[in-house]
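REVIEWER CHECKLIST
Item 1: Sequence provided? yes
Item 2: Single chain? yes
Item 3: Sequence as submitted:
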Amino acid sequence: MLIRIGSNGFWARRDSPSDSLEETARMFNEINGQIIVEIGSGIHGRVAGNSVLTWAKKTRARRIIAVDLDPKQIDDVKKATIKYKNVEPIAADGLKYLADFSSSIDLLYLDFWVSDPDGALPGTGRAEAYRAAFAVAKNKLADRSLILIDDTDHVHPWKHTLIIPDARKDGFVVVFVGRQTLLMRNPSATVTR
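Item 4: Structure as written out by the authors:
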């Protein structure tokens, strides 16, 4: 499907990421994942996917850590996930949280927003921040792990521009691309569809 770009440079209309979230949840279960770290969280409605609810409902994760700078987003996550004891909403800077995180990560979901530096090409700030997120998380990602990046259906530079080449150099392979992009480390065991 073609995605029309509005006069503001963003999508005029786009599909929900539900299919890619559900496929990622299925693959997470298949690799027997235990820990999900979501950087950039919130409850934004069906078109946005409400990823933290997909993880809570569709995975067997022991821990789902939802991190966002905005306390309101974290309050919304707390309210929406109150019955899921494995969800841990945390108001914090995602990059600092990743740098300080001491456990192994099976799924890293990146959907945070960063402003561009003054005078930079639009999207440069996000491209650099997502690369930085991977750099601080890569040694914490499990031997067989997943990285899901939201909003990869946008013109470069954007969230995925720098992180995907870096992750591929580190042994990740691209599983699918589109509204979201999924990468998998060490897919040596067959993942069924």
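Item 5: Key structural point noted by reviewer: The beta strands are 35-39, 63-68, 87-91, 105-110, 141-150, 172-176, 180-185.
Item 6: Recommendation: ____
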